[in-house]
Amino acid sequence: MSTQVQERVVVTGMGVVTPIGLSVDAFWKAMMRGESGAAPLTRFDASSFKTRFACELKGFDPLSYMDRKQAARLDLFCQYALASTQQAVEDAQLNFAEGSQEERNRAGVVFGSGIGGLQVLETQAKVLLEKGANSLSPFMIPMMIGNMAPGMIAMQHGLKGPNHGVVSACSTGNDAIRDALLLLRQGYADVIVCGGSEAPITPLGVGGFSAMRALSTRNDAPKTASRPFDTDRDGFVIGEGAGTIILETLSHAQARGARIYAEVLGFGASSDAYHYAAPDPTGQGVILAMQRAFQDAKIAPESIDYINMHATSTPLGDVAESNAIKQTLGKHAHQIKLSATKSMTGHLLGAAGAIEAIATILAIQYNVIPPTINVKSLDADCNLDYTLGEPQAREVNVALSNAFGFGGHNTTVVFQRFLPAN
Question: Alpha-carbon dihedral of residues 66, 72, 76, 81, nearest 10 degrees?
Fold first, then answer.
C-alpha cells in the first residue's frame, strides 16, 4: 500500500429506502413533486402520545431483498441497510459474486446507525420482564448492535476489506462517507459501500424524542409539520429508512468502465463541545466544519452552488445553521441555493446524511434544486434563498451536504460534478 499519491474518489452507485420512495428514482420524483412522507402512526397505538405521526416507510417488503428466515433474524434497521445496499450495488454494476477474491478483499463497508436495533431491544426487554431471561432470543444481541448493518452487508456480498460501524447521531451518514473517503484516498480499499440506516419508530423511540420536546406535535396536520425556516416550526418529524452510496477510487472506476455520478472532493468535521442536544447558538462548530471542508476540498467558498442543509425544523437549529452559512460564505451566502429535504422525508437520524448526500448528488446530476416544502412565513432570522415550494433549475457543479448530531457532531461533505481531468 502506498500513500504517496492521494486517490480521487467518485460515486458510482446509490440506493435508498425512504418515506417518500423505495428507490432512488422514486425518491427523486417524489422530491420534485414536493411530497411529504408524514402521516399518522400505524406501527403502534400512539393515541396516548404527544406526537402521533411520523415518516414511516410505505410498502417496504424485506422479502424483495432477503429470504424469510434472514428477515426474521434482523432488526428493521438492518433490513433497510441491506435493501438500500442491494440497490446501490446493482446500480454500480458491481457483481461481487463473480469477481475475484482479490477484488472482494479490496472492497469494504463503512455503515452507520444512530441507534441500532431499537425495535429488538424494546421487544426483548418486554420478554425479559414478562417471561424471564430464559425466554430471550439468542439473536437479540446480534440483532440489536449497530455494527451489524456493515457486518451483514459484508456477509451478503462477500466483502473482506475494511469494515466498521459509525455511531454519531444525526451526523452518522456523513461520517460514514468521510471514513470511506479517507480509506480510499489512503489506498486501503478500491471500493467502499457506505451509508446509514435507522428504524426508530417504536414506542420507546417516539416517546423518548417526544419527552425531549424535540418532535413536532402538529397532530392535526402531519404532512405540513416539518417546516424548516418557518416562523411556526415546532420540532422535527421522526423518520426511518436507509441510504447507501458506492464510493470507488477513480482509477478503479475507470478501469471497469463505471458510470460516475459525482466526485467526493472533501469533508470537514468538528465538535460543538457545547451541549448534549442543543446546537451551539453561535454556530462555531458548523462554521469550522464548513471551513475545513473547503480546505480539504481545496476550493473557495465562492465556488459553492448549492447546500443541502441539515435544517430539521427546530427553532434553534435552523437559525444557527443559517447564521453559520452567512458567516462562512459572506456575501456569497445570498447568491447560492439552499434547501431542507427533511421537510419531505422527515428526519432519518443516522440515515439522514446518506440520503441527503444522495439528494445532493442528484441535484448535481440533474441541475435541479430540491424544494423545501411547508414554509408559509419565513423566520426573520432565516433570510437566505431556501428554494421554497417548487424545485428550481440551477446549474450545480459544486455542492455541500451538512449533517449535525446530538452530542455536537458536525460533518460537511463536498461533492462536485465529475471532471475527467482535474
Answer: -30
Alpha-carbon distance 191 to 183, whole Å?
A: 9
Give the domains, in start order, of the chain with CATH numbers: 9-255 (3.40.47.10), 266-416 (3.40.47.10)
Do the Cβ atoms of 9 and 197 come closer than 8 Å? no
Pair 170, 347: CB distance under 8 Å: yes
For residue range 310-335, list pLDDT tens digits in order: 999 999 999 999 999 999 999 999 99
C-alpha cell at 268: 470537514
| Sheet arrangement for strand 398-405 | 163-166, 107-112, 191-198, 241-249, 9-17, 262-271, 409-416, 398-405, 306-308, 337-339
Of 386, 270, 369, nearest in space to 334 by CA: 386
| φ, ψ for residue 98, nearest 5 deg | -95, -5
C-alpha cell belonging to residue 408: 455536537
Q: Report the C-alpha gap between 279 and 281 in whole angstroms.
A: 6
In order of 129, 352, 360, the CA distances from 373 in angstroms are 44, 17, 17
Please list the active-site residues.
170, 310, 347
pTM to 2 decimals?
0.96
Cell reading at 258 = 463505471
